[in-house]
Amino acid sequence: MTSLGPAQFYLLLTGVGWTLLLTVAGFIFGGLGGLAVALCRTSGVRWLEAVAVAYIEIFRGTPLLLQLFIVYYGVGLLNISMSPWIAVSFAFMLHASAFLGEIWRGSIDAIPRGQTEAAKALSLGYLDRMRYVILPQAVKVSVPPTIGFLVQLIKGTSLAAIVGFTELARTGTILSNITYKPLLIYFIVGVIYFAICWPLSKFGSAMERRLTPISNH
Q1: How many of the other CB atoms lie within 10 Å of CB of 199?
Q2: What is the mean predicted confidence (pLDDT) over 100-115?
Q3: Cα separations in angstroms, 88 against 20, 28, 35, 72, 135
Q4: In terms of CB atoms within 10 Å, which end of the chain has fewer, N or C?
Q5: Residue 215: which pLDDT band, with cuts at 50, 70 and 90?
Q6: What is the pLDDT of residue 1?
Q7: Whole-structure pTM over 0.70, yes or no?
Q8: What is the dihedral of CA 18, 21, 23, 25, to 10 degrees?
Q9: Chain segment 138-149, per-residue pLDDT in tens
């Protein structure tokens, strides 16, 4: 039996680092994909909208764990060499892009139609309307649900342990097996998750209260 010491806490901090890195990678690249999905979803081009809807429904309608399995083991079946880090990051990117795409699509649709009509009257094309008129307003509406999804994404990284990626949850399991103190270890892991997610949740709630008058305008 090994007691908790500096080495064990260092392992936990390493796990925290990988959890945050995975979250950032999934959120940033998923955000870029989500913006593309949202633009396709609101483009007015039927086939683009159909593809975007299908993409969103597939990833929102299946568990994240299943998506991780399909990406991780599916790549192996194609004889493509990919590290767990890349495979898991890719799965989280796909997952995040679908959810963020739908969140941002809803934010775009929440902008009064008069804004779009006014932009059209100024002969602005679709991309210019989005860039200069719609998206700057939609960003304000989308902040609270986007932060809420980020919190869910952080907690969802614990599923990466299933495919062998050593983030915070898997690090906790390893230390539990080494120290034979599962209750203490998982309590510490839970406190760490809470310390990361709770401030974000409070920030999201504060932004929602602050931006509600804007979104309802």
Answers
A1: 11
A2: 89
A3: 13, 14, 21, 7, 30
A4: N
A5: very low
A6: 57
A7: yes
A8: -140
A9: 888 899 999 999
pLDDT classification of 5: cutoffs 50, 70, 90: confident
Spatial separation of the C-alpha atoms in residues 105 and 35, rounded to whole Å: 9
DSSP letters spanning 39-77: HHHTSS-HHHHHHHHHHHHHHHSS-HHHHHHHHHHHHHH
The pLDDT of residue 168 is above 90: yes
Say which residues have a Cβ less than 8 Å from residue 195's Cβ, sequence separation at least 6: none
Structure-token pair, residue 57 = 């429904």
- Is 133 or 1 the better-scoring residue by pLDDT? 133
What token pair was written down for 26?
């999934």
Residue 200 makes CB contacts below 8 A (sequence gap 6+) with: 147, 150, 151, 154
Rounded Cα distance between 66 and 59, Å, is 10
Q: What is the mean pLDDT of residues 177-190?
A: 91
Tell me the DSSP string of the chain. Answer: -----HHHHHHHHHHHHHHHHHHHHHHHHHHHHHHHHHHHHTSS-HHHHHHHHHHHHHHHSS-HHHHHHHHHHHHHHTT----HHHHHHHHHHHHHHHHHHHHHHHHHHHS-HHHHHHHHHTT--HHHHIIIIIHHHHHHHHHHHHHHHHHHHHHHGGGGGGGT--SHHHHHHHHHHHHS-HHHHHHHHHHHHHHHHHHHHHHHHHHHHHHHHHHT-
